[in-house]
Write a structure and sequence with these properties.
Elements (H helix, E strand, L loop, with lengths): L4 H8 L3 H8 L7 H14 L10 H4 L3 E6 L5 H16 L3 E6 L4 H9 L8 E4 L6 H5 L7 E4 L9 E5 L1 H14 L5 E4 L3 H13 L9 E2 L6 H11 L7 E4 L2 H13 L9 E5 L13 E5 L1 H17 L7 E4 L1 E4 L2 H4 L2
Parallel strand pairs: 1-2, 1-3, 3-4, 4-5, 5-11, 6-7, 6-8, 8-9, 9-10
Antiparallel strand pairs: 10-12
Helix pairs in contact: 1-2, 1-3, 2-3, 5-12, 8-9, 10-11
């Protein structure tokens, strides 16, 4: 017989309610207590009661989607696409957020947080290939975003290198030569550098502004960092929210967009089409991402021994006022 909730509580020296709070990722638990409970869970190899899975022939009809932050428009729109596609399959989606915390992402990938779900779709920021290799529980899992190579897991992605290359090339085609990049992401940076190299423009680290997050404030702060005597004449932002923040800083500093500085983002969030100026962007096909993810998940639920697959969704360049003007 496996370990019980009470066993975990005893080992961790806390109440069963506290263990339940940690398993369900409730916020009102101190980091020290959370760490003790998670260690006890790992030591005892505790798994929540899965009796509900016996319903409907062992299936619950529930799938879990975990994204870094629901308040970020891209993830909100992606979640909406997954919910719509799942509804057409007769599935219900449980949506959770991880805030990019590695421990939380590991719990999600183990199926501990969403133990009633038939399968999991996770968009990770901190999860590593090693974390996937070390999973002891094996609930059906599909990852979204940059592949955790060489982790043997189903993955849905877009060609981030190609998308970034297209975005940067668009700025080059406008005659811009001092192109900055705002964001953190190895594949997008690779595409940016590829486009510069093809145009015979030297890579300048002074034009790269990494960020700690992808909120508008992060983009605004990064743009302030880039402004100076050698200010860029164009900026490729690794997300639309970063781009919107960058535009705010540019306008407040007296720069005109796109006359003085052209700006392009990545994600094609709905807000970008209504901003002033409207935002040029690389548009991932979110509906296709959702369809591919649910398709792979359904395949994995039906056959857990199936070979892991990678599916690549489409993307497109959307040109608006922030690069083309009115």
């Amino acid at each position: 017989m496996g370990a019980s909730l009470k066993d975990v509580a005893t080992l961790a020296g806390v109440s069963t309610k506290t263990v339940s709070n940690v398993v369900n990722d409730y916020p009102f638990v101190t980091p020290e207590t959370r760490a003790k409970v998670r260690q006890a869970i790992e030591t005892l190899d505790y798994r929540p009661n899965l009796s509900a899975r016996q319903l409907r022939g062992g299936r619950t009809g529930l799938v879990a989607l975990a994204v870094p932050e629901i308040s970020l428009p891209y993830f909100a729109e992606l979640a909406g696409a997954v919910v719509q596609q799942a509804k057409e399959r007769g599935w219900t989606v449980l949506v959770d957020q991880t805030f990019g915390d590695r421990d939380t992402e590991r719990l999600v990938a183990e199926g501990i947080k969403s133990h009633l779900a038939d399968g999991l779709i996770v968009s990770p920021l901190a999860l590593t290939a090693r974390d996937i290799d070390e999973r002891r529980a094996t609930p059906p899992l599909v990852l979204l975003g940059e592949r955790l190579s060489p982790a043997p897991v189903d993955n849905v992605t877009i060609d981030y290198v190609a998308g970034a290359r297209v975005a940067t090339q668009h700025l080059l085609d406008l005659g811009r030569t001092r192109i900055a990049a705002i964001g953190t992401g190895a594949l997008r940076l690779k595409g940016y550098r590829n486009a510069l190299r093809k145009a015979d423009i030297s890579y300048d680290k002074a034009l790269i502004a990494p960020v700690a997050g992808y909120r508008r404030a992060d983009g605004a702060a990064a743009m302030r960092q880039l402004l100076g005597s050698q200010a860029p004449d164009a900026v490729f932002c690794f997300s639309d929210t970063l781009a919107l923040g960058a535009i705010r800083t540019l306008l407040r500093s007296g720069r005109r967009v796109p006359d003085d500085v052209a700006v392009i983002g990545f994600d094609d969030i709905d807000e970008g089409g209504f901003s002033t100026p409207s935002l040029s962007t690389i548009a991932p096909d979110k509906a296709q991402i959702a369809e591919l993810a649910l398709g792979l998940l359904g395949r994995r639920i039906a056959d857990r021994s199936a070979e892991a697959q990678e599916a690549v969704a489409d993307h497109a360049l959307i040109v608006r006022e922030s690069t083309a003007g009115l």
